[in-house]
Amino acid sequence: MSQSKMKCSFCGRGGAEVALIPGEDGNICVECVERAHELVQRHATAREKAAPLPPTPSAKEIKEFLDRYVIGHDETKKVLSVAVHNHYRRLEALAKKRGDAKGKGGDDVEIEKSNILLIGPTGTGKTLMARALAKILGVPFAIGDATVLTQAGYVGEDVENLVRYLLQNADGDVNLASRGIIYVDEIDKISSKTDNVSITRDVSGEGVQQALLKILEGTICRLPPKGGRKHPDQEYIEIDTSNILFICGGAFVGLDRIVGERTGKRAIGFGASLAAGGKAREDDAAKDAGANDAPLDVRPEDLVKFGLIPEFTGRLPVITVMKELTEDQLVKVLTEPKNALVRQYKKLLAMDGVEIEFEPDSLRALAKAAISRKTGARGLRAEMERLMTDVMFDAADYAGKKVVVTETMVREKALDGGEEQ
What we know:
Layout: E1 20-22, E2 27-29, H1 30-48, H2 59-67, H3 74-99, E3 116-119, H4 126-137, E4 141-145, H5 161-169, H6 174-177, E5 181-185, H7 206-217, E6 220-223, E7 237-240, E8 245-250, H8 255-263, E9 266-267, E10 273-274, H9 282-285, H10 300-306, H11 310-314, E11 318-321, H12 327-335, H13 341-350, E12 355-358, H14 360-372, H15 376-393, E13 402-405, H16 407-416
Parallel strand pairs: 3-8, 3-11, 4-5, 5-8, 12-13
Antiparallel strand pairs: 1-2, 6-7, 9-10
């Protein structure tokens, strides 16, 4: 068929009016090609254009917000507040630079991302701290467990699943997810087993660390749109992890001994320390056991000796140690935060017309029980649940009355749970 007799399959104009590009099942004119290209570009620009960032709170404002949810750990909260403030200031600078026409008059200084490593015993509030940070910043938050991650190609969860969880919590908004926070718990459990001579690959240890390197630093994750496994012919959702803040947390049991070997002092837990000869220092002996005024001075070389590869520790430049909570701090955990357990139970029972009062000694007994079980603040909920089960069960019988929780009640419930005090 001659060019003059052909028509555009889209606009219907003939070859005498516009230049046509013939195809097997139809034709398209040059103008329709240009229009289609313009629409594709406009759609791509709309997808890439991120919503404006909310104003970044100051470091002091972030710490004040953390104080409402987390008791103690003032130094850790200060370090986190500064690191997070700097990270989102960095995102503001990047957005401003993209907004400048061709970067005219721009600043050629590039601010690098600083991921965070939280070290501390269980129940000190590592996860709660990370969740509170996401709350004040208004960004999506996801939690992953390093113990279930495996190197790509092995049975288990791929490290890219961490980003997939974040995307789900961002309701599929790629731009919002790319500015979120991912908390990776139990990161100490992927330390390489260098002392284990074996021909098998350490797919859940050093292999996972290697797999996490690029995601921590910044890479393009290609995720299946509906989850599941990847297939060669399917389309993928691409997320750049360069601006995602990663916070890793772990107990790092035994790290105190490694630090002690380097410093010449034998550390006990995450707090007080002993001199190299084993005799307690007089100033430490004067403090309460667990006062924890001197946190571990952890350095990257200590983490490498623990089992983290140097490349991995290099991608976690901000390191902070959380100390064990004291008895007084655990009592405050029960009463002061916005989500304090005492407040929660008072509200629950008030719905049934029951007033409840906790005697000061009963709160201290709960704190002692949590300390004896070495579960920190997380153990307080288990103790409280055991204590309040009967009261909540008989709540209807107490309507219009006042229930007073005593130290004796706490001790009896603790003994029922197998704890001798």
